[in-house]
Automatic annotation (TrEMBL):
Domain of life: Bacteria
Organism: Saccharopolyspora rosea
Name this protein carries in UniProt: Amidohydrolase family protein
Pfam families for this protein: Amidohydro_2
Record keywords: Lyase
Domain Amidohydrolase-related: 42-351
Gene3D superfamilies: Metal-dependent hydrolases (3.20.20.140)
Amino acid sequence: MIDCDVHNGWDSARVLLPYLDPNFRDYLDRGELPGGRESFPHAHRPWLHPEGYIRYDTFPPGGGAPGTDYEFMREQLLDRYELDYAILLGEESVEVSTLANPYYASALARAYNDWVLDTWAPLDERFQVSVVVAPQDPHGAAAEIRRVGGHPKVAQVLVTSGSQRPYGDPLYHPMWEAASEMRLPIAAHLGGTSGVNAHPTGTGPATFYWEAHAMLCESGMGHVASVLAHGIPERYPGTKFVLVECGVAWVPAVLWRLDADYQALRKETPWLKRLPSEYARDFVRLTTQPLERPKNPDALWTALDEIGGREMLMFSSDYPHWDFDDPYATRFPAEWRDDVLDGNARRLYGLPEVAGARA
């Protein structure tokens, strides 16, 4: 089993100071952290989660924030569920995408990547790392992908679903070019819908957290339409697009609409050689958490089967967050289980059949 959404973090962003470009160190050390504030700099979200963003039982017994203690993560997640691999996505680090200063954002991303490869990657053979980039600095993002993308522990490039423009836009083509060159997928994790980025929904910010959380899939819809319409699979072979924590039930309806409109309006995008849904089957991957649960469970699998969902879905738990999905309690069709829990991620990330020594 492979878990494609595991959040590792720190107790204080001060851990980045030794890795941060000296030209930007004061931004963090004197501009962000004084006064007891230890969190990563980012533009704050407009909603308050009424229960908090984490599972209460994931606080390490020795103290510290959830996701910061390797031994406790190993006990609660890696060993308990006998994972072959865990794809680490960091915690606050991906919020670099919300910052107005693109040079500072890229400097923070570089510092995080060096820190996670130095500290977390060596702890366990099962860990694979996501390279965080700042998409508001696409040339800087491309340079960072090339700088660390060849590391044997790097599985993918990571951005947020919140962005200034949809990810197929030519603004981001330098990032796609570098990912294609390094043979790495680009993953968009739910979030980053604040700061310099667009509103999380087409009508503006929601009032309540549950309302916003349910509708954050809108950004995923826009990104899928954009990467397909701009022909990213044709222009940049060797990469794929992973949507993390954006839901899955909406994907069939969006692809059906894209197919219908493409057939009527295909003169706008003459570079496309296939239907959008055919590209999506090969190019788009979806993590399962949070998995929608209709009253008739078969309804979800029937719809997903129409678009090749068995080849697109990859299991994720979202540990240690509040809406964690237990792989033993999450039901998949029997014939889908091996692909969703293991095979699809193993093929995407090129992971060996066994991880080797555990810890």
